[in-house]
């Protein structure tokens, strides 16, 4: 009966191909969205897993998280030395990594930070940074670069880096101070660290002093360069996680300066709530495309019920039962859906393979393209089940038709 | 009829059948008795219910009253799936037109009943070869076997259908106007072949046609109108 269904579908391949394709596309969308969504979440959760608090000037917590961890955008304003002292000297704080940002070198972000960063920063569930080549910066003129910076720009140990003010492209003013020299290259991490250039806080400051005034520059990026506010954000690790809520509140109540302390995990959830609307919309859209595909299969098979009455009568005459005749139609619906799902799966895998390097390069986020996740199996099974359900309609019609037709069809 | 009589190929007694929604029954037949190996010509005006009667004989339709037996087994005493298997085992059917499943090849069409009937399959030592031989005898050459059935001429289709109906020696062959789409030459040749093959396999043949000129070739002519008269 399966081979009969296959042959019958092949016979009608012209009209069936389109419905299969529409199902394939929607399945690819559904799977792709699911994949990117779950992996993005896992990836980001891994990136923040080692940091207990992020402290920055008062602002939107999602913005602070994106700027300090994901290297997307900048904090609205900076922190003074006093605020940094206040945070880092708290007795519950195990380590703190100050970061200053706002400059870039040929599209890669330049970050001023402390040596402690290479010791304490954690990503992807407690992995630390390691060096592929060289060592940490040991002065104001040295820089440590991420793996992608090295690969992308062809930099080696000893290469010179001229820093431009602001985050962007060609036309930005370059700091006139002497260039930095690459002292170390980090091993790849699959995080935004790969796309960053790290220099010492002092080196970063010196570069700005050398540069002098702040005219003719992007005002957004400029705000955090007032001399007394030299730190953009602080990543904080606590001695005990239990203290996190109390500290968050206490930092937020710091009198001298408005601060925001961000719990990365919670803020990520906030971020997912923001993107959730878009995700849901996409899932709905691809869901609707699935439904359209399934309706296409049903109408296709329903339309053929009449023209296939003779075929069914022949099958009945040679000994096929009503359940078998109806099963043939149901089988065709299932096969079409299954082909759509399989093709969609293949499409999504191909798309992910193509997308993975782009995501990696743009956002430093690693997308595992191969394999099928449990959620994806579930989605595919649901679609197959739906295919069986809608296939039941033409199958039932065929059953009724064959039942009343008898053996000989009147033309 | 007596219980000691040989088992009939097809037997109807006190059958009433009406299509759903019809006010009076279309068929009311007190008795039909077709011997094994008998070749019966069934005649009657259009719309008199010949095809319906064949449907009853093949167990696709069930009478509202009375009994239809093939080889002594009453359709109405079987379950639906038993009827399907029994039909596959013991009956060969040829229609007026469109006998073949269009997306299967000629050979696949011919072998189709064997998929549903282990009994008929078991009667053939080498099913495919025997199918080829039978096709060959009815003038379907080896070069046509792989072609989709839809590409054959009507005459070729009817002969293919006859091969399918005969393959594996079913005891009863039912043919509903198998020649009416054929021209005179083709019709005579087809009937010749069909009768010869039915004779060889020893099957009973119930043959419906409007063409009374064919009647003389059969053992017996049954008028549907007469059957109905009997019942009243
Ligand atoms: N599937 C069906 N459902 C309802 N009524 C039917 C069906 N098939 C046939 N009939 C009715 O039953 C009557 C007899 O039809 P049938 O096909 O048995 O006649 P027939 O003798 O074979 O005619 P013909 O010589 O034209 O083939 C007709 O009035 C027809 O309308
Ligand atoms: Mg008829």
In brief:
The complex is a heterodimer of chains A (411) and B (232). Chain A has 411 residues and is an alpha+beta fold.
Describe the overall structure:
The complex is a heterodimer of chains A (411) and B (232). Chain A has 411 residues and is α+β, with helices and mostly antiparallel strands. Chain A folds into two domains: 2-44 and 276-407, no CATH class; 53-262, no CATH class. Helix content of chain A is 55%, strand content 15%. Chain A has 13 helices and 13 strands. In chain A, strands 1, 2, 3, 6, 7, 8, 9, 10, 11, 12 and 13 form an eleven-stranded mixed β-sheet that branches. A two-stranded antiparallel sheet of chain A has the order 4-5. Chain A is elongated and about 95 Å long. Mean pLDDT of chain A is 83; it is low at 212-227. Chain B is 37% helix and 20% strand. Chain B has helices at residues 50-57, 80-90, 106-116, 118-122, 127-137, 154-166, 184-201, 224-231, and strands at residues 10-17, 27-34, 39-43, 65-70, 73-74, 91-94, 172-176, 204-208, 220-223. In chain B, the strands form two sheets. In chain B, strands 6-7-8-3-9 form a five-stranded parallel β-sheet, sandwiched between helices. Chain B contains eight helices and nine strands. The mean pLDDT of chain B is 87. Chain B is of the alpha/beta class and 232 residues long. Chain B has a single domain, classed as 3-Layer(aba) Sandwich (Rossmann fold). At the A-B interface, helix 1, helix 11 and helix 12 of A face helix 1, helix 2 and helix 3 of B. Bound molecules: adenosine-5'-triphosphate (ATP) and magnesium ion. Adenosine-5'-triphosphate sits between chains B (19, 26, 44, 46-52) and A (404-406, 410).
């Amino acid at each position: 009966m399966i081979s009969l269904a296959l042959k019958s579908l092949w016979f009608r391949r012209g009209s069936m191909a389109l419905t299969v394709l529409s199902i394939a596309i929607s399945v690819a969308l559904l799977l792709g969205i699911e994949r990117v969504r779950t992996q993005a979440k896992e990836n980001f959760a891994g990136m923040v897993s080692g940091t207990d608090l992020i402290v920055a000037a008062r602002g939107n917590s999602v913005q602070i998280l994106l700027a300090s961890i994901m290297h997307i955008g900048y904090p609205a304003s900076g922190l003074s030395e006093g605020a940094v002292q206040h945070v880092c000297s708290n007795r519950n704080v195990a380590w703190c990594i100050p970061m200053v940002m706002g400059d870039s070198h040929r599209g890669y972000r330049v970050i001023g930070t402390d040596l402690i960063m290479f010791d304490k920063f954690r990503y992807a569930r407690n992995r630390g940074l390691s060096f592929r080549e060289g060592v940490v910066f040991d002065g104001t003129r040295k820089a440590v670069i991420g793996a992608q910076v090295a690969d992308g720009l062809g930099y080696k140990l000893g290469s010179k880096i001229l820093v431009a003010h602001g985050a962007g492209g060609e036309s930005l003013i370059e700091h006139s101070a002497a260039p930095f020299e690459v002292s170390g290259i980090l091993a790849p991490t699959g995080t935004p660290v790969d796309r960053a250039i790290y220099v010492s806080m002092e080196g970063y400051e010196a570069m700005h002093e050398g540069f002098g005034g702040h005219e003719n520059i992007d005002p957004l990026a400029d705000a955090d360069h007032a001399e007394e506010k030299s730190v953009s954000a602080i990543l904080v690790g606590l001695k005990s996680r239990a203290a996190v809520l109390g500290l968050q509140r206490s930092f937020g109540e710091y009198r001298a300066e408005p601060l925001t302390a961000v719990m990365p995990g919670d803020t990520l959830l906030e971020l997912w709530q923001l993107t959730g609307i878009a995700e849901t919309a996409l899932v709905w859209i691809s869901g609707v495309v699935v439904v359209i595909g399934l309706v296409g299969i049903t109408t296709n098979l329903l339309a053929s019920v009449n023209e296939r009455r003779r075929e069914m009568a022949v099958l009945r005459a040679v000994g096929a039962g009503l359940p078998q005749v109806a099963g043939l139609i149901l089988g065709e619906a299932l096969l079409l859906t299954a082909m759509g799902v399989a093709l969609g799966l293949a499409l999504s895998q191909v798309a992910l393979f193509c997308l993975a390097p782009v995501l990696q390069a743009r956002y430093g986020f690693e997308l595992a393209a191969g394999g099928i996740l449990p959620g994806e199996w579930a989605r595919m099974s649901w679609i197959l089940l739906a295919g069986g359900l809608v296939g039941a309609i033409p199958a039932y019609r065929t059953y009724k038709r064959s039942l009343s037709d008898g053996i000989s069809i009147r033309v | 009829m007596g219980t000691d009589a040989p088992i009939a190929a097809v037997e109807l007694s006190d059958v009433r059948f009406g299509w759903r929604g019809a006010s009076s029954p279309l068929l009311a037949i007190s008795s039909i008795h077709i011997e094994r190996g008998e070749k019966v010509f069934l005649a009657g005006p259009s719309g008199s219910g010949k095809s319906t009667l064949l449907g009853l004989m093949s167990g696709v339709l069930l009478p509202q009253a009375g009994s239809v037996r093939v080889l002594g087994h009453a359709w109405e005493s079987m379950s639906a799936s038993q009827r399907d298997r029994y039909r596959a085992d013991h009956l060969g059917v040829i229609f007026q037109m469109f006998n073949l499943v269009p997306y299967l090849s000629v050979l696949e069409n011919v072998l189709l009943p064997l998929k549903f009937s282990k009994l008929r399959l078991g009667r053939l030592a080498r099913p495919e070869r025997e199918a080829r031989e039978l096709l060959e005898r009815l003038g379907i050459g080896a070069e046509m076997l792989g072609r989709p059935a839809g590409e054959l001429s009507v005459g070729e289709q009817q002969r293919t259908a006859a091969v399918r109906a005969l393959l594996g020696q079913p005891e009863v062959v039912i043919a509903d106007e198998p020649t009416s789409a054929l021209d005179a030459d083709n019709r005579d040749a087809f009937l010749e072949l069909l009768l010869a093959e039915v004779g060889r396999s020893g099957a009973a043949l119930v043959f419906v046609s409007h063409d009374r000129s064919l009647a003389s070739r059969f053992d017996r002519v049954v008028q549907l109108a007469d059957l109905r008269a009997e019942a009243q």
